[in-house]
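Chain A, query sequence.
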Amino acid sequence: MTSAPIARPARGLLAGTLRLMLAATAIGVTLGLAPLGMAGTLAAETTHIRLTAQSFGSTQAVSLDVNKSMLIDLPVDVQEVVVSQPDVATAILRNKRRAIVQAVGAGDTNIFFMDAAGRTIVVLDVSTKGYNNNSASVAAVLRDTFSKVIPNSNIDVEAVAMTTADGTIINRIVLSGSANSADDAHKALSIAAQFAGGQDNVTSVLNVGGSQQVMLKVTVAEVNRSLAKEFGINLSGSYDGGGPTTSFVSKQPVGGVSNLFTNNGVDLGVTAGPFTIDAQIRAMEQRGAARTLAEPVLTALSGETASFTAGGQFPVPTGVSDNTVSFAYQDFGVTLNFTPTIKSNGQIGLVVDTSSSELSPEGSITVGGVTLPGIKKRQAKTTVEIGTGMTLAIGGLIQEQTRAQVHRLPGLGDIPILGALFRSRDFIRSQTELVILVTPYLAQGTKETPELPTDRMVFANDAEAIFLGRIETMYGVGPAGTRGSYDGSVGFLLD
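Chain A, predicted structure.
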């Protein structure tokens, strides 16, 4: 009787190695999910998942990049698949036990796999990241971005993908809902323009909350003080001895200017034989002070630009053609240009360009017998952020100039003490202080008509003009009961 050989367990190093390889292969082929009722996480780089019977009823987190796919092998036959957000991911059944999960947009979704009895085989919590150039994905990404960047606003997004003749896909985006401030609305428009290829493809119908009008008051204040002194003797003379005539005059310093004053001295002349001597004794002091104040006020909507000008123009010759002089006109006066933006934090951003100019004899020139005046100008252009009702100095200047010059007779004017009879001295000192202030207000219109500056201006009648020398009555003075006062800010209610 023969017996079949009995297989004995393999022994030694080779047998142990084979067992380890088989175990590793089994682990690599089967990815067992968490037991029933527990959740696990699948790596984003996993592209093929094989579920075992132990994973039945579990919930699993899956991460995918947009436009990537994953194979899912299920332990039992699938009867129904439910996807909560098809714009984020889709599930395609290849057969009853294999499905393909595709990430089509950025976001989060759930995918339920159920059997014929309606039991849940597995639930996939799918999280996708990335960007897809379809309208649904663009809208989802923008909503998520707005919720993070502009959390206090309620902005909705609608996107439509349009294909041009050359096959280019262009997204048209519509922003609706509400923004807390014009600054938030501007942020939303700028962000949407990045996804739509420009602001021309974005339409905003956002409702902006809060007051959106900004009234800006600009103050340009300047004080000038000047002092000029002139003292001395100017001598001039000549000698005519029958030959060439010899003359001498007081010497002016190099680069010197003409006398500061006219008709400011006493002229003396002496003639003795061939000698003629003229002397002018000059002694004069001049003090001056000037005060300039300009306060333009202008109102504009948040995000819009407003301009204000009060002044005039003067002609400047630019050329001559066929004995005809052509002119260009130069502006002068007070100008204000500004663009306000109301920020989400309640501050007001300002882009300000303001100037105050006037005609001045300083810097004037004479061309062809025509004197062209110079322009004295103060200007500030800047971008600042400030709270409503607060004042900020955006520019300022403190300037002091001192100039002295001496006229003297060569040689004699250099003699100590006695030389004072042969020289004169001019001295000029000027001081300038300038400051430019801005004060913004949130403003709304008022139903009441404010009192105007012209309401209480009455021109004098003939009797007052002839006997009292009046041109008009004093401002604010009138019969009893007619004098009033301003209530609040003129024309506006200020927050």
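The radius of gyration is 45 Å. Residues 38 and 58 are 6 Å apart (CA to CA).
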